[in-house]
Amino acid sequence: MRTLFLIVRKSLANHALSTVVTVLSVALGVGLVMAVFNVSTQSRAAFAGGPVGFDAVLGARGSKLQLVLNTVFHLETSPGNLPWSLYETIAADRRIELAIPYAVGDNYRGYRIVGTTRELFTEFELVEGRGLEIPPPGRAFQPDKMEAVIGATVARDLELRIGDVIHPYHGIVFDERAKHAEQYVIVGLVEPTNSPSDRVIWIPIEGIYRMGGHVLRGSGEAYEPSPEAEIPDGHKEVSAVMLTFRGGNLQTGQSLAQEINNQGKVATLAWPIGGIMLELFDKLGWVSRVLELVAYLVVAVAAGGILASLTNSMNERRREFAILRALGAKRRTVFSAIVLEAGAISFFGSLVAFPVAAAILAVAAIVVRRQTGVVLEPFALHPAYLWAPVGAVVLGMLSGLLPAAQAYSTEVAKHLGATN
Amino acid sequence: MLLEIQDVVKRYRSPDGELQPVLDIERFTLDEREQVVLEGRSGSGKTTLLHLIAGLLVPDAGSVVIDGTHLEALSEARRDAFRARHIGYVFQQFHLLGGYTALENVVLGMSFGPGIDRRYARELLERLGMGERLHHTPEQLSIGQRQRVAVARALANRPRLVLADEPTGNLDAVNGREALALIREVARERGAALLVVSHDELVLSAFETRYDLADLNRVESASHV
Asked: I need a surface site. Which of A60, A229, A326, A388 has the fewest CB within 10 A?
């Protein structure tokens, strides 16, 4: 075995350039496979099972998925508004532990502004025992003041601090020309949650109602609030109501879904949130499969590279094999050396694949975090980190079979020079 | 008797598909520790004869017996193993492995035979004046030094028989004389018989026992590639 390793080591060193290129191509292919599977699994887990804190979302009649994407992940547009009365009704329901209204539609430099109530910071728990924490000297906004609380990503990316003033912009897409006249003072920075909430600017819901140019249609008729006058509840409306069930009761979800989605006609209950996101992933499953296929193809190309590299070197190496045979090496020794060499290239490629996968994952994590606030872990382990390298080594050794057969069939006398 | 060749015939297929004999030797023998030179012109079949003795080729008829073992009766794998253990071969072009150091070239040959003995490999190379060049690759050695490594490799497995094909063919007269003397001396020291084939008068005249392959080979005017 030591002899085989010596032969392989020398051969790899003697063909250093082609070895390095082939190792890198294997690393790219295997790294891609590892990264694609890891991103896919982590994304699914983060979107469908990540910390949300709410059991369900009540919104306008329409797509549950759109409702979840808009209110939980702060993506997409709102499917519409609900009258304030519906919020009051659901909040008063004894099956509901917490009902927090959201009003959306503005942004600050691309980060969404969500109008809500103080309960989001005082009652809501993102995970058990931990809510949206605002460390001192920060605090939650006063409902009747023009104050804002911002998520950790917003604070970091826009370099905002307590005391800074922001101007909301109309719409969910940042447009310099759509600047509102109102100003909000930042009074709190939420600690990082590694959730989409990190990308949100929270202001009092009253602030959304009173934003210049906003028209309320809670009563069915257009109503533009005057600066000093109190807004009648009948005119108010909300984009969604975020709900937690008393005791996280499964039956509550089923009965509410029956009442609202099947029997009612004005609202939609998105429940369970994780299940709805899983449906999305199932619908987008083909994208993952295409990516996996591309990754497999890259591995196949890399295996082809090993085959081509070894086959190309066969002619010049036949003399080497003939010498080895003349020294007493058996045909199977020469055969094994080539298969082992192909396996070694795959093995080293698989080793380099780990940092490659981590790099791909790191870039993917940055993109996903920027776009959604969802955090992917670049160094998280995945079963693909075991089966992809093992599979690559096996595939590499298989790709070495053809050149190994050529080496096996080398005629010693013919390749040791002319017979005379 | 160490080597006995009896009624050996070897044929090659010519480009027009016909089998043509290149070697037909009725009898040739070599005793233990004996040193013999075979005179062979270019195209006389001398390399074919050495390949047959080394078991790299199998005769179409006849037998090659070394120390009582009929090589033609052995499977290829057994012939390989027999060659590694009992026969040392100094090739005309040395055939050292590129990228391997002098020591590795010698040690690699040992690994197919009785086993690696680094100390003996080192001692052999030092004996051949290569002590300072143990870790040089063939590319870093002169032709004369390469040949010394080839000799060390041929003797590394303590063979009973050493074959040398035109051992001075790539050397000038001074180096050739020195190399030949070295091969003979070390083979004698290590108790190996030596069969040299050459058409170089310098080599031929150095041996007490000398045969002409043209006399042994019953195929007339053999000329083949």
From this structure: A229
